[in-house]
Design brief:
The complex is a heterodimer. Chain A is mostly helical. In chain A, 78% of the residues lie in helices and 0% in strands. Chain A has one domain. In chain B, the strands form five sheets. In chain B, strands 5-4-8-1-9-12-2-13 form an eight-stranded mixed beta sheet, sandwiched between helices. Chain B has a four-stranded antiparallel beta sheet with strand order 15-16-17-18, covered by helices on one side. In chain B, 33% of the residues lie in helices and 16% in strands. Classes of the chains: A mainly alpha, B alpha/beta. Chains A and B meet through α1, α2, α3 and α6 of A and α7 and α8 of B.
Amino acid sequence: MAFRNRLPKLSQITSVYAVIVLMVYGWTIVWFFWKLPSWLYFMTMGEIGGIFAYSMAMNFLESLTVVLAPVLLCLLLPSNWFFDNFIARGVSLAMLWLGYSMLFTTQMQDAEGYPKNLLVMSVLAVLLAIPLASVVGKISIVRKFLEAFSDRAIVFLYLSIPISAISLLFFIFRNLF
Amino acid sequence: MPQFSRRDFLKLAALVPPAAFLSNLALSDRLPNSNQDKSLPNVIIVLFDAMTARNLSVYGYHRETTPNLERFAERATVYHSHDSAANFTIPGTSSLLTGMYPWTHRALNDAGLVERSLVDRNIFRLFGSEYKHVAFAQNIWANFILSQFAQDIDTLIPPTDFSELNHIIGDNFKDTELAYRAFDDFLFRVNSPASIVFGPIEKTLLARSAAQLSTQNYPRGLPQDVNYPIYFRLETVFDELGKLIKQQIDPYLAYFHIFSPHAPYKPNNEFAGTFNDNWHPIKKPTHRFSDGKLNSVLLSARRTYDEYVATVDSEFGRFLDTLEQAKILNNSYLIVTSDHGEMFERGEKAHVTPLLYDPVIHIPLLISAPGQTERKDIYTPTNSVDVLPSLLNLIGKEVPDWCEGALLPGFGGKDDPERATFSVEAKRNPAFSPIKIGTVSMRKGPYKLIYYTGYEAQDSFELYDLENDLEEMNDLYLTQTDLAASMREELLTKFHDSDIKRKS
């Protein structure tokens, strides 16, 4: 199969990206609101808005990084492993990865209290996530659910993309000029 | 004749921005300001974070923690009753650098900032262009404050400089102040990073680097910042500061905020275990507002702290040698102080506390004047807000009327038994609103009144005579009623006035 033909369609990538955005941005926004009351004690709305903009710009880069993983797997693996049913497999892979990352993050204390057991398990998690994502694509009910879910998640892109664009511009402006 | 082609021109043009950038980096710190007046003395402020005067042998502490400060004291003015205006870094540092109390500058909270409309009231601006200004704060919170004054500082050294390992991201951006807040305080915070993808990756890299870090000479690990991933060796920090001082062009104002001996306490090989002497300080009752820590925990923490103080003192001694050998002290004021103290009593460890007992606010202040060879001792109560006006007076500058400090006795000031000084703990209040929950201590002559407001249904007070009861064991509030009433009135008037002033 030609290289180009192994790439999923843009609409498929968008569906997977929407779920990633939901999780990546959602996680940061939850933390943002958790921190907000303490920031309101000593920071102005402009300063808090600046932190929000930096966070959204970072989330944009993060979400793009995550969406690259299923796309790359499509290119590297046989088509019946990942390319077929890309949405369901991509979404399940992203959910497994980000879910594990959430667990990892909550276990983090400091450099000394680093969750080494979870780091060892991450190798296992990655090795399991790919075949699991591949299998999930073959289970009809799960596949349909994931496709429907990702389709509905696209609505978040109408918010995240303009916010990210403005945030990126703000970040670039503050650091170049 | 060789041709100068369009391609050559483009190559040359491409070299101009990096060359300009590099030359700017290399020269900006060393070029004198056009207004620099060589006849003026240099001013070097060395601030040790969380150094209580109560645990320093230079102030009579039982353990010999500071032989080098004692050596320095022989050529300095030593202030024996010097208090910080606050009990932690943000307000303590802000008061020192602005000459205002926390209720005025409003840097009240953890990681807080000086009121934006007051940032031009800082020591660097007031020293003017006759001086070169160089500043370094290893404590990132203190660096937040310095960043607010950045436009008045010629050389603001990043807090990560001189470190063995750091994973501070904000340093890499032009907009460092916001970058610290967004990246280091939020997205990549050591515990609980808000970045779900890069956060864990970054922390994995940090843990790997930290594990590989050589801890040679530091049996309990390298000294480090408590809130941010910065690991350093004290000897490197002081060596580099010594070099930095020697590079400066007179006259300069140098402000160095050293993170040690702030927790975590990491004494070096020479001092770890030095104070296993079974010495027990006087046991004090657990305070109702304290964490209720066991006495055994407090004793152990105190011992390690003392060993860390001795380590810091030893490195300060080498720094002092460097200054003496380079004859820098012949034309410089050297000020050694702290931003707040540390306490190991009444169930409380360190300084994150609503309590304002002596150990947590009583800080060292030693000032060596150019060429000074004799020791001078001052017992009058003084406060960290007094340092700024006194330094301005020394360099012949007018003290602004908004400054809440007074001239230090020995440097233009007089003993005034009627003068009251204050320390404020108010981190539980929004910086933009009146203080409703907090502790204020007022020092007047030998007496100290402590006011607790907002913690309980009723406000409460304690009164101590520090001249006869330095350990603050005997509360006089209910027995010395006349004195208590007059001091209470003065404290409450000042407390409420500060809010009225802030609103206006």
